[in-house]
Design goal:
The chain is mainly alpha-helical. It contains 8 helices and 2 strands.
Length: about 180
């Protein structure tokens, strides 16, 4: 059931952002997990945009990553590489993006920690960076904790988030309906 947006429910709830990503990764749905991580960065970053801005942008995504991702994160890529990877995964389910094609960003190739290297028969784009999904996931979780801390401690971040939060979707599971054989509910 839809409820008024609550940041903790959206992020940490039983059906929240972090749980959805965990379910994908636990079931080895690598690209779906990556897509949810990028979508989550988009959504959380959008909360930090100026209160005058109705729309979010590439810059908001990049600023959020640069501000909240741990340094060093264990990732060999930068915020623009992550944004370009986000464009590829979310728009074409591939490492391809305009930023990659024009040479502004490096493509990301994903693999499991301790898993096999990318198949040598698959053409790997030049300058590609291999990213272990667990490292990306851990960096994202750290970034979420930093973001939530900033919402609690930084008045400008809190003001922006509070302004944009009512626009978000927030759902809680509904309780199961009880029924009895005597016709009562």
């Amino acid at each position: 059931m839809q409820i008024p947006p609550q940041l903790d429910e959206i992020v940490n709830g039983q059906r929240g952002i972090l749980r959805g990503i965990e379910i994908c990764l636990e079931n080895q749905c690598l690209v779906s997990g990556v897509a949810l991580i990028f979508s989550a960065i988009d959504s959380l970053a959008a909360l930090t945009r100026s209160v005058q801005d109705s729309d979010t942008s590439r810059g908001v995504f990049i600023d959020w990553v640069e501000r909240f991702f741990p340094s060093p994160s264990g990732l060999a890529c930068n915020a623009l590489d992550l944004y370009a990877a986000r464009c590829g995964v979310l728009h074409t389910y591939s490492p391809e993006s305009r930023l990659r094609r024009d040479g502004s960003a490096r493509p990301l190739i994903y693999q499991w920690h301790g898993g096999p290297a990318p198949d040598p028969n698959v053409l790997i784009p030049p300058r590609a960076i291999t990213v272990e999904i667990e490292t990306l996931h851990e960096a994202f979780i750290s970034a979420v904790h930093e973001f939530l801390s900033a919402v609690d401690t930084d008045s400008e971040t809190r003001r922006r988030v509070t302004h944009h939060l009512p626009d978000l979707l927030c759902y809680r599971p509904w309780p199961p309906l009880g029924a009895s054989l005597d016709g009562g509910i």
